Amino acid sequence: MIDALQTAFTGMARATDRLGAAAQTIASAGASASGTTLEPATQVDLSDAAVELLGAKSAFALNTAVARTADRMTGQLLDINA
Question: Domain boundaries in the chain?
Fold first, then answer.
């Protein structure tokens, strides 16, 4: 059960990193190198970042479900052994 929890927590950490990277992409979209003007909206493509946000959200939710299931199974195993 510990391996399942460790795997789930590692997955949640990676999903958090993906979310942060996508958020950084969105936050920096349109900013020029000089930082004084923004690019026209037609030149900024945020679809990949939006897809990455959704993917990170789903990955985090799935890893949370794995952690809950592993916790529930560990609890049941301890109840059986008690």
Answer: 2-25+46-81
